[in-house]
Write a structure and sequence with these properties.
With 364 residues, this protein is of the alpha/beta class. It folds into two domains: 160 residues, Rossmann fold (3-Layer(aba) Sandwich), CATH 3.40.50; 132 residues, no CATH class. The chain contains ten helices and 13 strands. A six-stranded mixed sheet has the order 2-1-3-6-7-13, sandwiched between helices. Strands 8, 9, 10, 11 and 12 form a five-stranded antiparallel sheet that branches. It has a two-stranded antiparallel ribbon with strand order 4-5. The N terminus is likely disordered.
Length: 364
């Protein structure tokens, strides 16, 4: 009984001390508001300086090479060198990029990792998943992530790091952006950023700007002419009132700030069907319309065209038969009208490609 009584006294004493401690804190003299604000300001200042000191300088992977008269990668290289960014060459796959980051890992994480890879929404990226592997699409990248064929990203990034893709239009591809987020898996997930616009280097009036794309297609070598094409693209983008489409289709460069101009590309497709061990009869064609009808009836062929989102009649179709193998080829030419983004007020100038601007860059 005495023991129980002694325990109760101890508990009561502890409660009284606790109440006294809380009361002491509540009645403790507080600092003036100005002094508190000053303390917080100094604390934030010290923290910011520390974070800036810890982040490594930006790095740029030139993940491709120019062919013929192209100069996209060279212009990007010159631009980033002028920014004093570190340049890494000859890494043409995601595997090589992640492996390089792991090999060159140090204590401080990267603030910005830029990846330059010329592309467009129709032709896709030229960046490979793994060395000599498939070109990156949402599907091919997802397969690599699922199979574990990509290396795991080590501690060269943190939650504040930004992996910025300079690859035209992929910011619109939300599925691909989400898959990139999975591919760059780390203890602290970095931000993956890309623009829905075209990224243009070494322009006439500024070294780097963004441009909105508009597309029109025709069967390669069978152009209906700029007049008909201008009518078609005008109807397709009827909400765009500020572009003279005929003039834009005849411009090859930006002659004054904000002027729309046109570049072009081609998209080839190829189907090979072997009838050697097939019970199906080998089809014969006389005209292109018969080829298009045949492709529409073959689900496995037509699905590949549907992923491009380009009508069958926009391709020039050819076919050949050797022994029991039927080869069907199609080719379309795409004209892309680029309208540079300019400031809607003040002096006429391009909008700066600010990766923190969510109107310009998608972030995952």
């Amino acid at each position: 009984m005495n023991t129980s009584l002694r325990n109760l006294v101890i508990i009561a004493y502890v409660i009284l001390v606790s109440i006294s401690f809380v009361s002491c804190n509540n009645t403790k003299e507080t600092k003036p508001e100005k002094e508190i604000a000053k303390t917080l300001k100094e604390s934030n200042k010290e923290y910011t300086v520390k974070k800036e000191f810890e982040v490594r300088k930006p790095i740029v992977f030139i993940a491709g090479f120019d062919k013929g008269d192209e100069n996209y990668y060279n212009n990007a290289r010159i631009f980033f060198k002028e920014q004093k960014f570190e340049i890494v060459e000859d890494k043409y796959s995601l595997e090589e990029i992640i492996s390089w980051l792991n090999k060159n890992e140090v204590k401080n994480p990267y603030g910005e990792i830029h990846i330059v890879n010329k592309s467009n929404p129709y032709k896709g990226m030229t960046l490979e998943t793994v060395i000599n592997g498939e070109k990156i699409t949402t599907e091919s990248l997802r397969r690599s992530v699922t199979k574990g064929t990509l290396p795991i990203l080590n501690e060269s990034v943190n939650a504040n790091s930004k992996i910025i893709f300079h690859a035209n239009g992929i910011g619109k591809n939300i599925e691909l952006m989400n898959t990139f987020k999975d591919a760059f898996c780390a203890d602290e997930l970095p931000n993956v950023i890309a623009s829905p616009y075209f990224s243009v280097f070494d322009g006439e009036f500024t070294k780097h700007y963004l441009a909105k794309p508009y597309y029109v297609f025709y069967p390669t070598a069978n152009s209906p002419g700029k007049t008909d094409l201008s009518k078609e693209i005008s109807k397709k983008y009827s909400e765009e009132k500020d572009i003279d489409w005929f003039e834009a289709l005849n411009n090859e460069e930006e002659r004054f700030i904000g002027e729309a101009y046109t570049t072009q590309f081609t998209i080839p497709v190829k189907f090979e069907l072997d009838y050697h061990n097939s019970d199906d009869e080998i089809p014969t064609f006389e005209i292109q319309e018969e080829v298009m009808d045949f492709i529409e009836q073959k689900e496995e062929l037509f699905s590949k065209i549907k992923t491009l989102n380009i009508p069958l009649e926009k391709f020039r179709w050819t076919w050949s038969l050797k022994n029991s193998k039927l080869t069907i080829k199609g080719k379309t030419t795409g004209l892309v009208v680029l309208k540079p983004l300019i400031k809607p007020y003040g002096e006429l100038e391009h909008i700066k490609p600010d990766t923190n601007n969510k109107r310009l860059y998608a972030m995952n």
